[in-house]
């Protein structure tokens, strides 16, 4: 088994702290505990330059507030920048009830998981970056999921009201629960982890 490169380990260590913050719901924290326990076992590594999408250009602006931060947020930001050329970028191609700028306005970055820098099939750990004023479509997926916001942004569960949990907050999605996110007039970045 390969040992884990230090930039990925630094990202995981800092993300683990952000997902464990006590103000988050118990179900969100319980899910994170299980995911980060699985991450104690490294996967396989793939350091290849990957295709980028237009929304990747919003990464620097989203992470700018953390450029001098020496806390977990700063470490997550620094690790993402160090790993940026190798991140497994993808886009959601189903756009039902998304904003018209959605396709060009979002990118999902896989760090650990299928198609990620750390290839593994038991979980997903990464983030979504969006340009300003983008609404991600209502969607659902079998894996249970939780998010942590690194910027301002709003979430909606089922077809309920839009909520603004603030930086460090987020939502928890039970398997197959319908949810959506949207950015305000600034770039958006939220970490996510899913149990496969
Ligand atoms: Fe989701």
Gross geometry: globular
Order of strands across the main sheet: 2-3-5-10-6-8
Radius of gyration over all CA atoms, rounded? 15 Å
Distance between the termini: 21 Å
Low-confidence stretches: none
Round the mean pLDDT to the nearest integer and report it.
96
Number of helices: 5
Pfam families: DMSP_lyase (PF16867)
GO molecular function: dimethylpropiothetin dethiomethylase activity
Protein name: Transcriptional regulator
Structural key phrases:
6-stranded antiparallel beta sheet, binds fe (ii) ion, DMSP_lyase, Jelly Rolls, 10 strands, alpha+beta, two-stranded antiparallel sheet, 196 residues, single chain, 24% helix
State the gist of this model.
By secondary structure, the chain is an alpha+beta fold. 24% of the residues lie in helices and 23% in strands. It has a single domain, classed as Jelly Rolls, CATH 2.60.120.
What do these coordinates show?
The protein is α+β, with helices and mostly antiparallel strands and 196 residues long. The protein has one domain (6-195): Jelly Rolls. Helix content is 24%, strand content 23%. The protein has five helices and ten strands; from the N terminus they run H-H-E-H-H-E-H-E-E-E-E-E-E-E-E. The chain has helices at 6-19, 26-38, 59-63, 72-83, 102-105, and strands spanning 44-45, 88-90, 106-112, 118-119, 123-130, 144-149, 154-157, 172-173, 179-182, 188-195. The strands form three sheets. It has a six-stranded antiparallel sheet with strand order 2-3-5-10-6-8. The chain has a two-stranded antiparallel sheet with strand order 1-4. Helix 1 runs antiparallel to helix 4 (72-83). It is globular, with a radius of gyration of 15 Å. The model has no long low-confidence stretch (mean pLDDT 96). Bound molecules: fe (ii) ion. Fe (ii) ion binds next to loops. Fe (ii) ion binds at residues 139, 141, 145, 173, 179.
């Amino acid at each position: 088994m390969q040992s884990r490169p230090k930039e990925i380990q630094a990202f995981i260590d800092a993300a683990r702290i952000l997902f464990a913050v006590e103000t988050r719901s118990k179900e969100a924290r319980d899910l994170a505990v299980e995911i980060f326990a699985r991450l104690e076992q490294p996967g396989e590594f793939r350091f290849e330059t990957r295709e980028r999408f237009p929304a990747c250009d919003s990464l620097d602006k989203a992470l700018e507030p953390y450029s001098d931060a020496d806390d977990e947020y700063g470490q997550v930001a620094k690790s993402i920048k160090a790993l940026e050329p190798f991140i497994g970028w993808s886009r959601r191609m189903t756009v039902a009830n998304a904003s018209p700028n959605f396709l060009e306005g979002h990118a999902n970055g896989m760090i650990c998981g299928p198609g990620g820098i750390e290839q593994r099939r038991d979980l997903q750990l990464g983030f979504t970056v969006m340009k300003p004023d983008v609404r991600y479509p209502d969607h659902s997926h079998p894996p249970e999921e939780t998010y942590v916001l690194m910027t301002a942004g709003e979430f909606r569960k089922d077809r309920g009201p839009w909520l603004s949990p603030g930086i460090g907050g987020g939502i928890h999605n039970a398997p197959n629960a319908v949810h959506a996110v949207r950015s305000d007039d600034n770039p958006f970045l939220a970490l996510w982890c899913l149990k496969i």
